[in-house]
Sequence to fold (1355 residues):
Amino acid sequence: MLLKLRNIRKSFAGAEGPVPVLRGIDLDLDEGESMALTGESGSGKSTLLHLVGGLDRPDAGRIDVGGVEVTALDDSGRAALRRGTVGVVFQQFNLIPSLNVGDNIAFQARLAGRHDAAMTAALAERLGLGPHLAKYPEQLSGGQQQRTAIARTLAARPRLVLADEPTGNLDEATAEAVLGAMLELVAETGAALLMVTHSTHHAARMGRRLHLHAGRIA
Amino acid sequence: MNARILLLVCLPGLAQAQGFAGLGGEAGGFALPEKGQALAFPADHGAHPEFRIEWWYLTANLTGPDGTPYGLQWTLFRSALAPHEAAGWDSPQIWLGHAAVTTPDDHLFTQRLARGGIGQAGVTATPFEAWIDDWRMAGPDFDAMRLAASGPEFAYDMTLTAQGPLVRHGEEGFSVKSGEGQASYYYSQPFFDIAGRLSLPEGPVEVTGTAWFDHEWSSQPLSDRQTGWDWFSLSFEDGAKLMGFQLRENDAAGYSYASWIAPDGTLTPYVGAFEAEPLETARLDGAEVPVRWSVRLPAEGVAVEVEALNDAAWNALSPSYWEGPVTVTGSHAGRGYLEMTGYE
Amino acid sequence: MTPTVLWALLSHWRRAPLQLFTLIAGLALATGLWSGVQAINAEARASYDAAAATLGEGQYARIEATSGGEIALSDYVALRRAGWQVSPVVQGRLGDVQMVGIEPLTAPGGIGPGAEGADIAAFLGGAGQVFGRAEALAALPEVEAERVVAPDVAPGTVVTDISVAQRLLGRDGVDLLLVAAEQPLGRADLFDIAPDLVLRPAQGGSEIGRLTDSFHLNLTAFGLLCFAVGIFIVHGAVGLAFEQRRPVLRTMRALGVPLGRLVVLMVAELVGISLVAGTLGVGLGWLLAASLLPDVAATLRGLYGAEVAGGLAFRPVWWLSGLGIAVLGTALAAGAALWRIATMPLLAAGGRRAWAMADARSARWQGALALVLIGVAAGLALWGEGLVAGFGILGAGLVGAALALPLLLGAALAAAARLARGPLAQWFWADTRQQLPGLSLALMALLLAMAANIGVSTMVGSFRQTFTGFLDQRLAPELYIEAADDAQARTVEAFLAPRVRSVLPLASVETQVAGLPAELNLARPDPTYPENWRFLQSVPRPWEHLAVREGVLINEQLSRRAGLGLGDTVSLGPQTALPVLGIYGDYGNPVGQVIVTEALFRTLHPEIVPHRFGLRLDPEQVPDIRAALLAEGVAEAAITDQVALKRFSLQVFERTFAVTAALNVLTLAVAGFAILMSLLTLAALRLPQLAPVWALGLTRRRLAGLEMLRAVLLAALTALVALPLGLALAWVLLSVVNVAAFGWRLPMYLFPAAYAQLGLFALLAAGLAALWPAIRLARTPPAALLGVFASER
Fold:
């Protein structure tokens, strides 16, 4: 099992004491699998994604990624997990504005020590970024920026791809194209995919679907 | 017997001795001692500016009222940049005074420097006066003199009274210093009685004792290979005296000489018969200095041990040398002075 | 991983070259001003040290002839033979060079040249040797002695053996005897050996050094001020850079860059930048120092007679201190920003934070600290004494005032907001107040720069005003002449007496008054004196009393040092004790002075024949008399006309402050730069605040205009605070520091026109600084303003 979540609980500080966001989540995801995470705003789906990516820590429960107990890792251990095992595609793209597209794509692979120029170039071609490698993110359209972010994630060859509403900032047509490319490429690399989405239509394109409601799996 | 000191110290405070580096070898225009040239007194008590270097040297073994032994040194060196004297600041004669007092637990020393020609320092034969600043060795005549010196920590004022004749070392005062023939004129007055007051940091002390005076002048005193010497002036309880030195060559014993002086002043010279071997050393100012010696002059039946009164009799001037009172035990008992150079 | 992250970090600067420029320029400017001042100080101090080493200036007691003349060789030998450890020195001018003859065998340690190649036999024997700096040796007339270059000899001075010096200077005796620190037991009294000689005790430090210390302190204070202003800039630039990089840093962490690595690399980045800027700054300082140094040298020579080399040696000490201070300054400026990065949560809710916002608690602390510092300054002003107290007042007062500034401005803006009518005015005041924390550092820099400017220009102006008036009274004679010797002096005086209105002989003798060294001057009864001299205090008709030997006149320096007031008795010798008739200002003179009437002077010092004369005559007569004197054999150089003398004296004082003026302008410019950078930093953060106002119907032009108005308004308020602070600074400089350093108090004059000009300049600087951000705002595309609403999370 690549990803294993057991009884994950998380709450945030609110004006009148802690507000529970996740109230005991169990989840399993195997290599090559894809899963959509849906639910209304505030249902805790982004929080769950952050916990899996080691961006935050749960209050209770256990998370294993690729046989490593993430919940037992310290800061630098979780940084290493984000570098080497997990790749995150953000809704806001989060590209580095001072690096050109080519360097942005190669960035995480370089961090992970897995940079392969040929593979990166092939990825860029597949995502239609070939002509834009020397440009800077601000010169790209939203769809191109998200393709760049996807390329950056996949170039580092993570075993688990996490996507947080990756098409949330894109118009519908672009969103379709970007999502299609991402699913296709993830499937090719054999990585598992966990994607947060609002869209039932998008969720339907994933292998499995998990619906969150009030911090619980509905 | 202090040629090397003068060579190296010449102008201590200035540490600019390069100009004197050649002094060991060539005599360059200066007069040289000649064998068979008789010394004439009182004229030869005075300065010989045509020679490069000269010194008047007095050491004394003293005793305080409570029996405490003391030692005293008064030295005036002359070093010439040119073989003549001139009046005023143009004088090429440079004078250097060293004074020291040694107690069983302290050794105080100081120095003075002066230019010739202006009257700040000099030596006149008649009446005899040797001076630098306020330091003086002077008398109506050479047999009865006052001796004074002062420093920031000590001062002394003594009277000297001769109890025997002058003695001439080597061949009637022509004293050979190496196998290569370097030589000096050298005579002594080893029979002075001395009395007076030492002003010490603890207070004044009235002292009496015996003193030994040397006067020596030359122009090229040492050979290149000679690195230092050990010089002994010993007064035995039976009235006899021994002056002996060895010049170390590359730190091994080299040329040696001794004068055996009978109580009546009769002098017997010994070339190569004097033996001195260190028995114990002390570490002073970074130098390893012998402070206990085995001294032998077999021809006179002398086999004694010579030990420093105070190991720390180190004149930390430039260069540093050891000069202090010693006690003698063994075949003969007595007191004396020891000087060692070339250990720094 | 490290190269990848470093590359990503550094790529920021490629996209923000202006920021990089600001950072490096600010740091380089700060370091440059600091190290320039340090270089000047180090150079001048090295020169004094050389002077001290050459002459034993002040570190040894000295013996001089009571009458001020030569000491005979026999006296020297007598002293030596009495045990006195003294060493003779003979000095004199040889061409343009000061020649010092020493006796190396007796000279106390540290005196004379210790150069390589010193050969005592060559120094003492033969033709001898002359040691000096290359320039001094080159200026030496033809001499037989060998020239040896020795950089540790004082500038303009050569050192040689006493025999050589006496021969070249044509002297028999010596000028003084240096007394070694260690003396033997049981010496006789000086008086018993040589009754004509007098022992002057050693001074704590070098006499020259003590006098010029205040000048250097002044310079150092300016250097520090400049540095502080520069650090404000760096703080602004670093803050901006870090604020802009926050999202990127967060992304990098999300992609797996460990926080520790990130912080270490950012520190390395800053150290690298500060080293580059520091190197540039040291170079800049070098240029600054090299261009100011001749002025500084001229100033010190004019003011104190201290010789300073006009050239600059590159000294590793200030080179290193420059680099060090650049790194330290960066650390100071970037520490808080780095700390915020290090503690930044990985998943921050909310958007950008205004990085410089100070919270209420730290404002209270700041206020309390400001009060304490101002209290300390006030306390020192009331009860403190001396140079240290003076600089204590300056330091505590300036920092205290700077810390109090944001609070004062805040209060003023709050008051204005309460009085405001209409929504726009209310918004303007409230918004200005909200901006204050972000601008306060830059405004503090402006405050300090302006206060220093006001203080120094007041001091310079007061100095000039006082001094010009003083010159008019003191340099009343139309012509001054100097005779070559006694015989010529007598001839010239006899020749002139029937040809001019008055001949005023001038002579001075070094003496001691109330145990202090002082010079005794003479005055011939003449209307010139009562007509021109003004006294700080005097009895009625002092000159009439002086003429009949009923008293003496003393200068302010002597009055202060010896505590002598009107009517107090001054003893000038056996049976000559006279009351003080008047105290006169004697600006720029380090020594105490006593004036007696000519007849009394001749009684006291019958051996002295005055060589200098001031001539009162019809100005039209000047060329004729001049020609006649030349025909009489008086040297051309020995005749000075008053106008030239005045011009020269004024030049000296102008140059004194050319240095401070140059630093002043630079400081203000740097402060303007700081404002610009703060505004640019704020501009990015301001959009969300401005967008709603824009949306409510204010044009971008109008908004930009308000932004400029705001900057000018804040600068104007700061200028209002700076004025009293600057005047207080001037008061401390004139009435505390000057008295402590030089022994006289300068009357303080006010120069409203100059202050107004300064104020305008400050407003201009602020306006210029605000112009660019305002233009940028005016040109902000509406989409960006709209984006504020869109991207608000």
About this structure: Chain B touches chain C at residues 10-11, 13-14, 16-20, 81-82, 88-90, 92, 94, 110, 113-115, 118-120, 131, 133-134, 150-155, 199 (CB under 8 Å). The longest strand of chain B covers residues 183-200. Confidence is low (pLDDT under 50) at residues 1-26 of chain B. The helical segments of chain B are 3-9.
